[in-house]
Specification:
- The protein is an alpha/beta fold.
- The protein has a single domain, classed as Nicotinate-nucleotide-dimethylbenzimidazole phosphoribosyltransferase (CobT), large domain (Rossmann fold), CATH 3.40.50.10210.
- It is about 45% helix and about 10% strand.
- The strands form 2 sheets. A 5-stranded parallel beta sheet has the order 4-3-5-6-7, with helices on both faces. A two-stranded antiparallel ribbon has the order 1-2.
- Helix 12 links the parallel strand 6 and strand 7.
- The chain is globular, with a radius of gyration of 20 Å.
Length: about 350
């Protein structure tokens, strides 16, 4: 278990980031990019956020001007949560997760439309969908072969999954990213599908940032006041159950997370270790990012936040990670759409930095 120290900003014991396999991004190429931006604009900051993004991608690639992104991949992780069947924490029926997975599989979901526009490949992963294992066999039987378990237990009263299952989900995420990078992926968009997923995600964020349940609880899928109060209570109970697991990230994921959050954690860990940039989508991915940061303190250098979903826990997580969203969409709908919409902006930053000639000097 990692050591603990007193954190003056919250007055409680807080875990020291444990290090890991991620290297720091290339500071020398970041400085070259900043110099080039100054040459292009004549004054620093003339291209606004494009400068930040172009500088970041140059540092990530270790190349200035940066190379064009040629094979971006959106990896969408699907998983259900038992809390959605025992509490009124979602306006959607639990069965909607399997339905959405199926619609993505046949290229009829919203993410598919956006992916076509921005020219990004979508890969779908079922790690914990609460549906028969053959529910997609007539489309693509490979999708459910990576499943860790069928749904989770309601994490407000019992562990969401076993410790070994959490560890296996993290390793699955690592394997998926290795497979995509080995196949040529040079940018990853991380997203998720799962009814009720914002409740465990908010619980994880509340636990790691020491926030009260009310401050992290949003409306998610559009719940009413009664549903919101039930969601607050579920997060309160989950955080209480996890109070002794904050020094063990796998244990925390097993206690109040889920295979989807764990797999996303593995994805983010391995992408950073493999020096591959990632665009984070929404709240659920942000909860995995917080866990990943605890496991490898350099990992956030390899990420950007695609959007601000408007969910309070999402904003809290991004603030803790010191990540400023590219887009302010106030779109709590997950699925990776916000991350996908940020891809053309990253590509534009690369194009401007790489293909623009400095203005003539008088």
């Amino acid at each position: 278990m990692p050591p603990e120290v007193f954190s003056p900003d919250n007055g409680v014991m807080d875990e020291v980031p444990a290090g890991g396999n991620a290297e720091p991004i290339d500071a020398a190429h970041a400085e070259q990019a900043r110099t080039r931006w100054s040459q292009l604009s004549g004054v620093g900051g003339g291209f606004g956020r494009l400068e930040d993004l172009g500088t970041w991608i140059a540092a990530v690639q270790g190349n200035c001007p940066p190379r064009a992104i040629t094979r971006p991949v959106a990896i969408i992780v699907g998983g259900d949560h038992g809390i959605a069947r025992t509490r009124r924490i979602s306006a959607s029926k639990p069965e909607r997760t399997a339905e959405t997975m199926r619609r993505i599989s046949v290229d009829e979901a919203a993410i598919c439309a956006v992916a076509r526009v921005v020219n990004v490949t979508v890969r779908l992963i079922d790690v914990a969908v609460d549906a028969p294992s053959d529910y997609l066999d007539d489309i693509d039987p490979r999708i459910a072969r990576s499943r860790i378990r069928r749904g989770t237990q309601p994490m407000d009263v019992e562990d969401a999954m076993g410790y070994d299952e959490a560890a296996a989900a993290v390793e699955l995420g690592r394997t998926i990213v290795d497979d995509e990078i080995d196949s040529g992926a040079d940018l990853i968009v991380a997203g998720n599908v799962g009814v009720g997923a914002t409740t465990p995600a908010s619980s994880v964020i509340a636990s790691l940032t020491v926030r009260d349940p009310i401050s992290v609880t949003g409306r998610g899928s559009g719940i009413d006041d009664v549903g919101w109060m039930d969601k607050v209570a579920a997060i309160r109970d989950a955080v209480h159950r996890a109070k002794d697991a904050r020094g063990d990230m796998i244990g925390l994921l097993a206690r109040i997370g889920g295979p989807d959050i764990a797999a996303l954690t593995g994805m983010l860990l391995q992408a950073a270790a493999r020096r591959t940039p990632v665009i984070l989508d929404g709240l659920v991915v942000a909860s995995a990012a917080l866990v990943t940061h605890r496991l490898d303190f350099r990992s956030p250098q390899w990420w950007v936040a695609g959007q601000d979903s408007g969910e309070p826990a999402h904003s809290i997580a991004l603030e803790r990670l010191d990540l400023r969203p590219i887009l302010d969409l106030t779109m709590p709908h997950e699925e990776g759409i916000g991350g996908l919409l940020a891809v053309p902006i990253v590509r534009s930053a690369i194009a401007v930095l790489s293909e623009t000639s400095p203005p003539l000097r008088e």
